Amino acid sequence: MVDLNLLEQALCRYFHPPFYFDYAPAEPKVNELFKTMYCIEMTEDFYDSEPEIPPELESEWDFENPECMKIWKQLCDDYEPRRLSFNNWQELYVDGNWGLTQNKVNKIAKETLIKYKDKDRIFAAEYDGDLYFYIYARATYLKCGTIKLF
Fold it and tell me: What pLDDT, in 10s, does the model give residues 6-42?
């Protein structure tokens, strides 16, 4: 389920001014986009941090111990609101970064849009001649990110 407050924060952060529309691209539309545009940059935001094991339990901690697993489940449940709002890593896909070529960046962005096209989690905006896509997937243990096309 999409957390509307977190979504609004993200859209306002990425899209200036914050105008956007729900965009669920069909594969042919994505293919058409990449015939006339290229991906300037794509980011992948990770929301997969985990709670810390309490220091008083660290020396005895064993993930195979059922009691430890019960405590761990409770720690994770309590930590979930923090995990959903804490971006602990951002991966940048751009021509030249980590040896990526422009063709590879385009391919990754295109495959990402196609992957999420049926999930009602793609939001887009057009601003100053560029298209911005935001994919909201943090509540599914997947990733969020932006794609900027020119």
Answer: 777 777 776 665 555 555 555 668 888 888 889 999 9
Collapsing DSSP states into helix, strand and coil, what is residue 16? coil
Q: Residue ranges of the alpha helices (H) in the chain?
A: 4-14, 27-36, 55-58, 66-85, 102-116
Closest CA to 44 of 91, 83, 100: 91
Q: Is 67 within the bounds of a domain?
A: no
Q: How far is the C-alpha of 101 from the C-alpha of 99, rounded, in Å? A: 7
Q: Give the model's pLDDT for residue 106.
A: 94
Instruction: Give the chain's mean pLDDT.
Output: 80
Residue 95 lies in a domain: yes
Query: 47 with 88: CB under 8 angstroms?
Result: yes
Nearest to 117 by CA among 30, 21, 14: 30
Residue 64 lies in a domain: no
Residue 110 region by backbone torsions, left for phi larger than 0, else alpha for psi between -120 and 50, else beta: alpha
Domain contains 61: no
How many domains are there within the chain?
1
